[in-house]
Amino acid sequence: MENLDLFIGRFHPLLVHLPIGFLMLAFLMWAYQVWAKNQDYRQAIVFALLLGALSATAACVAGFLLASSGEYDTEMVAQHQWAGILTTTMAGCGYAAFAMRNRMAVHSRLAGGMLCAMILGLGMTGHLGGNLTHGSDYLTAYAPFGKKESLPPAPESIQETQLFPHVIRPILEQKCVSCHRQGKLKGGLSLESPESILRGGESGPVVSSPGKENELIRRIHLKESDEEVMPPKGKKQLTKEEMALLEAWISSGGDFSKPMTAYADSVSGLATGYLGLVPSGETEDLKVVLAPVRPGVLEELRGKGVLIRELLDGSYSYDVHIPAAALRVERLEDLLLSLEPIRQNVLWLDLSGLGMRDTDLAGLPAMPNLLKLRLERNHLTDRGLSFSGKFPGLQVLNLYGNEVTDHCLEELGKLGKLRRVYVWQTRITQTQVGEIRLIGEG
Amino acid sequence: MCHYDKTTHTHPDFQHIQKKIGRRDFLTKTSLGIGALALGSLFKADKLLAETSSGGIAGLPGLPHLVPKAKRVVYLFQSGGPSQFETFDYKPELAKMFGKDLPESVRGGQRLTGMSANQSSLPIAPSIFKFQQYGQSRAWVSELMPYTAEVVDELCFVKSMHTPQINHDPAITFFQTGHQLPGRPSIGSWVSYGLGSDNNNLPSFIVLNSKNAGGQPLYARLWGNGFLPTEHQGVQFRSGTDPVLFLNNPENYDGADRGKMLEYLKELNTLQYEAFGDPEINARIAQYEMAYRMQSSVPELTDMSNEPDYIFDMYGSDSRDSGTYAANCLMARRLLEKDVKFVQLYHRGWDQHAYLPGAIRTQCKNTDQATAALIKDLKQRGLLEDTLVIWGGEFGRTVYSQGKLTPNDYGRDHHPRCFTMWMAGAGVKPGFTYGETDDFSYNITKNPVSVHDFHATLLYMMGVDHEKLTFKHQGRRFRLTDVEGHIVKDLIA
């Protein structure tokens, strides 16, 4: 039974609530008695004070045993301990004063003063105890007053991300720091700051040994039912993603300031997912950050029969298709013009089979981010294709079934990013222009 | 036809339902809100339908998870288990081993089917067909597929597919639904459920089954919606003049007031939905309306008069005979052109346990030209840019002959350990071969791809993270890939 002291000590958080209740009740009864004047609760007060003093004593003993485990900051424990002992003493004296008032003519003011002091002590002890368990900023962290520690701004892209401040630190703060911090120091370890992480804990430094021998890595990977698992049984466990990120950070040396770009792709991929950023592998088509579209614009366009599909949820980039059926409701000219409010956001555009002529296409707003344009099965001629300035980013163009000839190729050659042009059933005869592949014989 | 006042619901049907609602409302409120709780879980499904716009049917909020590479898929399912030996997996070493017993070291104690397990020997049967390399990619293709050989530079071969299933039904069910037992939603249903539809006038998941092939049966549950809302089940188009059953108006009915009737029916059904909260009622409403729109969109589709002769010639003479594989390939192109999201073809008859050389020759003849034509046709129209084409069966075939082996004839049993599939178009590497098998095409030696991996990759191409597209049913969330599946990034361009 070598750990009997600790076993009893851990009843402290349970026991402390008894004196809080009893002593508070005694104080309230006394206060009501003073206020209402004609009530006499003395017997009840004496009884509550007796229970309070006894349970406070028990809580003190358990608390002392718990503190001897050494898992807490000694200075803060000392303050809490003396406040607790003082409160217990006050409770005992209060009991004596009320119990003996008749016999020894103790002044009722003295007895009352003792109760007031006791309740102040109780509040102080409770507050200090709370600070020990939850951290000294727990109570005020979300208060509408006071100065807050400013967090680093959330990164917008993975390139701007730093692994420690943006990813690792938030994980530690959410899942570890409530116990491993200044004041509580479970296992002698604080994960609050780079300095304390470097210092390490009883089992040694955090970041020294990479791989499975590392104590932190070993314990976060234990089964939740395991005695030694971290975070402990019942606390919110790390997700697989978080485990992998912590492991990657430690095994790469546990640096505090290196940018994300200094890490392997697998790590930045994980971080991308963790931060909910657009995966970098997927951004190749979506490098531009697009401004949100004005509310109501998409609904209005859809109401006209225009098909609009977001290419990636939340990216404000769109795949837009004007189906021939929409022409029954509105003129082509107006439909094309109505794309003006989203022209920056259109990445793919399908205008096939609309009977479009050169003059119609001229009314299409410039779309700087357009990547794929489908113009097949229309009546366009070479003159209509003078749009290199309007769609500078165009990569794929479908012209099949139009009346275009080889003459338009010079103009298309100005589109520096153009890679594939579909030219079946046109009068184009070539198969390659610079880097542009012309697909399908004319 | 029906005279009723929309605002006061004076029609007796409405009054009857409203009375029922009153009673039901009372019961709901007195049963500690349990009914209300149940309804709460249904609101999501309700909202899904509410987002329907005139231009298309929205998918789930939050999708796509990734920028899609493919907007549409056409899956040419070769049912029965096409032999890899006679098509794409060239094994020249086998010629030297004609008739020798399959070494135990290769078979590794694998259990065989009851059809060949009792054979006294397992004689190695090299393919009698010649192979040649084609295109810039120098891919090996057998002489049975001269047309496919012309398009190899568009194809991305996976020679290392494997499945745990050795018999047709569980293997096909696994391929189509991600699980070997019946009851899960088909791939097309998941895609429809997640991504919605780009064409309001046609179902987003359409099924075509060749009439010119026999063999193991196929059943509607392979394109069923499982536990997903019913409107996501595949709609089968049949051959002939009446491709969708029960779509035409009955004889002597001109259909003039059909729209009005459906509107009235919708109101009735909506009241019913409000009373009972069964999402299947919404599915029913959606299906009635879809069928109504299909009354005009389907005849337009099946009217082939606007297809020029050279297109028919490209797909082969069969393509003029509605319901053949070639005609279905042509129909698939027409559906894809109309932005149908998932077109599922089936061609049966690849199950050659005996007389394989003759039978596979016919199979290839019936499919090769049209398959290649579909690739070429999609390409010239620019549709291959964002359409994914998939070719493959449910498993491969054995290196040894089932039954008697002669220099000119042999059969092959089912073989789940390795087989070849190919994909083409949006998102996949063209002219690329992935995975390798041993000299017997019996075991995979490099880069195995499971059916779950295939599903994960397919969804990835469509912009769906296979781990995120889930549906809660009977107390747990289901995915197409269930708890498995890795995206095969090496296949992605």
UniProtKB/TrEMBL annotation, chain A:
Domain Cytochrome c as annotated: residue spans: 155-254
Source species of the chain: Algoriphagus oliviformis
UniProt keyword list: Heme, Iron, Membrane, Metal-binding, Transmembrane, Transmembrane helix
Residues annotated as transmembrane: 14-32, 44-67, 79-98, 110-130
Protein name as annotated: Cytochrome c domain-containing protein
Gene3D superfamilies per UniProt: Ribonuclease Inhibitor
Secretion signal, residue range per the UniProt entry: none
Pfam families: DUF2231, PSCyt1
Entry annotated with the keyword Cytoplasm: no
Keyword Metal-binding: yes
TrEMBL record, chain B:
Classification via SUPFAM superfamilies: Alkaline phosphatase-like (SSF53649)
Name the record gives this protein: DUF1501 domain-containing protein
